[in-house]
User: Which sequence fits this backbone?
């Protein structure tokens, strides 16, 4: 016996029809809103073009006048030049360098103390007046940070390793943790940099304690090199003696040996066998240590190493908003636009008030 399927109620059909009508109206309003929005933007764009076209002479005159004034100001005002010096600090001297740079910036940028600047940098007061600021920041290399983090991470215990992430380690670093730094100098004379370079490098590393450390370090390197040289001379003598013994032994009949045999007292001939090649290897190792000392002498010759000197002349460091030939025409254009907007707003308000 088949069962009859339930038929949809008339009220349900009406509700569904109303729902679809509401959805359709919602989409219709949405599309009309989007269309009206873009139409409004297009009308605004056309009105703006019409506004500028009708008053093109006014705007062109304002821009040209601004260019003339801007070029005149730029030609008579001092230009701002900049140049950078890259250094590497030794003996934990970064703190001293940063303090000295702050002092120089105070003298040049705030106090305008040309007398002190000329005395410390061995230049004239007129040349010192061209200096406008001194700046320093670490020259950060992500690869070096990652390498230092890896070495630091290896030294931590298991609990500390869970807490010390790379980002946290990087945030904990200060400028004093880096060895390489960039020093910038701002001036109005682009040829001042080579004149101050020698005295400036000496001044920023001036510290009696660091000078003593440098002196002791140089003395220690010299003593290490002298000690290695004595060892090399003794090693050469020892190798020479071993070779002489080997030659003498080889001249004996019926004696064969893979190495040089040294006999101590009544010891048997096989009790002590020396291979002179190991002594030669020791000599090569001593030579490598001397080469390392020579490298250290160069790298640790000064409190700070200059990796890149100042260029022969500085370069223009002004931004676009510091150049009057760009800034004044822009201001004149906006001022002209504002005047016309105020006039248009006044006419609109008069029209509305007369209704």
Assistant:
């Amino acid at each position: 016996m088949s069962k009859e399927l339930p038929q949809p109620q008339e009220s349900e059909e009406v509700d569904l029809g109303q729902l679809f009508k509401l959805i359709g109206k919602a989409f219709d309003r949405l599309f009309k809103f989007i269309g009206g929005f873009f139409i409004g933007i297009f009308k605004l764009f056309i009105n703006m073009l019409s506004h500028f076209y009708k008053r093109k002479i006014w705007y062109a005159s304002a821009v040209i006048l601004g260019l003339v004034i801007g070029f005149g100001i730029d030609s008579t005002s001092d230009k701002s030049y900049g140049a950078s010096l890259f250094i590497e600090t030794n003996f934990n001297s970064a703190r001293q360098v940063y303090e000295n740079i702050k002092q120089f910036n105070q003298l040049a940028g705030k106090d305008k103390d040309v007398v002190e600047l000329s005395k410390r940098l061995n230049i004239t007061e007129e040349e010192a007046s061209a200096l406008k600021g001194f700046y320093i920041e670490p020259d950060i290399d992500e690869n070096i940070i990652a390498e230092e983090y890896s070495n630091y991470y290896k030294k931590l215990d298991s609990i500390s390793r869970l807490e010390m992430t790379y980002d946290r380690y990087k945030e904990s670093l200060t400028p004093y943790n880096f060895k390489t730094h960039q020093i910038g100098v701002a001036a109005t004379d682009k040829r001042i940099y080579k004149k101050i370079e020698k005295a400036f490098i000496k001044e920023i590393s001036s510290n009696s304690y660091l000078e003593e450390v440098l002196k002791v370090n140089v003395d220690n390197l010299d003593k290490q090199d002298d000690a290695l040289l004595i060892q090399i001379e003794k090693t050469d003598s020892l190798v020479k003696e071993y070779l002489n013994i080997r030659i003498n032994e080889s001249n004996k009949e019926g004696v064969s040996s893979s190495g040089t045999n040294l006999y101590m007292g009544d010891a048997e001939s096989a009790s002590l066998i020396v291979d002179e090649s190991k002594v030669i290897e020791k000599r090569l190792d001593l030579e490598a240590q001397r080469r390392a000392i020579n490298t250290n002498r160069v790298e640790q010759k000064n409190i700070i190493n200059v990796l890149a000197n100042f260029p022969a002349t500085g370069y223009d460091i002004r931004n676009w908003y510091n150049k009057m030939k760009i800034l004044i025409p822009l201001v004149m254009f906006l001022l002209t636009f504002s005047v016309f907007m105020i006039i248009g707003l006044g006419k609109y308000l008069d029209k509305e008030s007369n209704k």
Q: What stands out?
A: The chain has twelve helices and seven strands.
